[in-house]
Amino acid sequence: MWLGGSARPKDIGAKDYASGQVFQKLGSAFKAFETTTTVPSLVASAHGVVLELGPGVGTQLDRFDKSRIEHIYGVELNPAFVAPLLAEVERAKLQGKYTVISGAVEDERLLAEYGLRAGSFDSIVCIGTLCSVRDPEQTLRWLYELLKPGGSFIFWEHRRSRDFLTRLVQGFWNPAWRFIMGGCDLSRSTGDVIRNTGEWDLQDSDIEAQKSLMSEWSIMPRVEGRLIKRA
């Protein structure tokens, strides 16, 4: 039994189930906070065939501009999120335009079952997900391969602070945080990894990290933007 008093399904591990319950309870709070950021406009800029990495319970679905979307593939590793995500697809009226893929984005055979391979996507959307992938460098190299030349890599992530004392705090909290928040790592230099993943068209790209001293005191300073893969 967990937060809602319901029994854990036998096909979902205890850790995944606990993480899913936490995110379902906090989903509305996360979404409300994101409305005060660039997240809605970033998600709305996605176009064509889209990969949404780690859609969770579907908090971004109603932010996509349907007139710009051909199809969205949401790849979700945690099986505890699949049922609420499918319900949100229906609520957002994206049936037939949004396919949920349960598994790891790095699983090339799984993606191939859906006809997806290198160069398949016009847009890739990562909102608060790169903190949880097992090997960010490897995952980002594969995402770069999946993106078409001229395609958009859209992201809003947290990163390692540049402030020494804040980095100590991040390091202190990180073990417990990762356990509670589904593997979320507070200490990754995510912006640097994204920049170094491949060749980006700098003229048409935009990447920004919060640079104020106050932002560096945050345990979750942000890096965000839209990068265009060089044709």
Task: Write up this protein.
- It is a single chain.
- The protein has 231 residues and is α/β, with parallel strands linked by helices.
- The chain is built from 8 helices and 7 strands.
- It has a 7-stranded mixed sheet with strand order 3-2-1-4-5-7-6.
- Helix 5 (136-146) links the parallel strand 4 and strand 5.
- The radius of gyration is 17 Å and the shape is globular.
- The N and C termini lie far apart (51 Å).
Quaternary organisation of the protein chains: single chain
Spans where pLDDT lies below 50 across 5 or more residues: 1-5
What proportion of the residues is helical, as a percent range?
Answer: 25-40%
Spatial strand sequence of the major β-sheet: 3-2-1-4-5-7-6
* Main sheet characteristics: 7 strands, mixed
Secondary structure: number of strands: 7
H-E string = HHEEHEHEHEHHEHE
% residues in beta strands: 15-25%
Count every helix, treating DSSP H or I runs of 4 or more residues as helices: 8
Structural class: alpha/beta
Radius of gyration: 17 Å
Mean pLDDT: 86
Distance between the termini: 51 Å
Overall 3D form: globular
How are the elements arranged and paired?
Layout: H1 14-34, H2 39-44, E1 48-53, E2 69-76, H3 82-91, E3 98-102, H4 108-112, E4 121-127, H5 136-146, E5 147-158, H6 164-180, H7 190-195, E6 206-209, H8 213-216, E7 222-228
Parallel strand pairs: 1-2, 1-4, 2-3, 4-5
Antiparallel strand pairs: 5-7, 6-7
Question: What's this entry about, in short?
Answer:
The chain has a seven-stranded mixed sheet with strand order 3-2-1-4-5-7-6. By secondary structure, it is an alpha/beta fold.
